[in-house]
Design goal:
Number of helices: 13
Number of domains: 2
Largest sheet: 7 strands, mixed
Radius of gyration: 20 Å
Number of strands: 10
Distance between the termini: 42 Å
């Protein structure tokens, strides 16, 4: 999809989110209704996806753009690469002024900061010191997958941990990988950031619980849905901030003037109910600094 997007002069990414290059002819018509395409790689009924779109709409409204009045938003949802390509083509066919989409790597707001991935391993060893075998779920098809895994691999020897990379393309691949780790002693799981991990999160959380494996996740909502612990950026705020980029583009700002922004705020969330089920005691130090503790 990346090459297709470049052909259509798509502009930006939000680690995430992609905005399209505005057409020059249209930029000369400030009073007309602007059309924005939104492509989200989650199911239409996924609460996380709904929250992201709502944040984007809220951000636009705060900047003076009113849906149905001076801006029209066309939203498409995709849970696979095939669906994403199909819906991307649909949005392009609508000839929007720009498109905001999950995926891409040109400019916008990056959701994954590779260097912080070592924190996953550090947290896992702190809450479960006996862990020596770790399944690392990552999407090898995206740069973030290899980037995050590389950081974790570099630190693994210092923690005395053996890693097993696992893909997240489809449920069977995930289930086989986590089950294999569970069959041996002292296993644990790290789930790195990727759209597919979000799509398959219900399965991943259920497998970790079934096999009684301590697991570290990259978004807070994994913990709210039953995961043990998470450390990562706010998953909603970048979509609200992306509205600012969209506003500037619609008003004539050159996309080249909008640099990629890395995440600046990271959140720690802990689920004490899950910890108790696993027989783990969360260190007081982590509880004291956690942004959210679910009891």
């Amino acid at each position: 999809m990346a090459s297709y997007i470049r052909r259509r002069k798509f502009l930006a990414t939000l680690g995430g989110a992609v905005a399209a290059w505005p057409l020059a002819a249209r930029a000369q018509q400030p009073d007309r209704v602007r059309r924005i395409g939104v492509l989200i790689t989650l199911a239409a009924d996924d609460p996380e996806g709904q929250a992201r779109v709502a944040a984007f709409r809220q951000g636009l409204q705060q900047l003076g753009w009113t849906g149905g009045h001076d801006v029209q938003i066309e939203t498409r949802w995709a849970t696979s690469n095939i669906e994403a390509r199909k819906h991307a083509a649909e949005l392009v066919a609508l000839a929007p002024d720009l498109i905001l989409a999950t995926g891409g790597n040109i400019t916008g707001f990056a959701l994954y900061e590779y260097s912080m991935s070592g924190k996953f391993l550090e947290l896992l060893k702190e809450i479960a010191p006996r862990v020596t075998r770790v399944a690392v779920l990552r999407d090898p098809a995206i740069a973030a997958g290899s980037g995050q895994l590389g950081v974790i691999q570099a630190l693994a020897p210092s923690f005395g941990v053996e890693l097993t990379p696992i893909g997240v393309r489809e449920p069977g691949e995930i289930e086989r990988g986590i089950s294999a780790i569970a069959h041996g002693p002292n296993g644990g799981v790290i789930v790195t950031g990727s759209p597919l991990a979000v799509i398959h999160r219900e399965l991943i959380i259920a497998l970790a619980a079934r096999h009684r494996l301590p697991a570290v996740y990259f978004y807070r909502f994994f913990v709210r849905e039953g995961g043990l612990i998470s450390y990562g950026p706010d998953s909603i705020d970048p979509y609200r901030r992306a509205a600012g980029y969209v506003d500037r583009i619609l008003k004539g700002e050159k996309p080249a003037n909008l640099p990629v922004q890395a995440p600046t705020k990271f959140e720690l969330a802990i689920n004490l109910k899950t910890a108790k089920t696993l027989g783990l005691k969360i260190p007081d130090r982590l509880l004291a600094i956690a942004d959210e503790v679910i009891e």
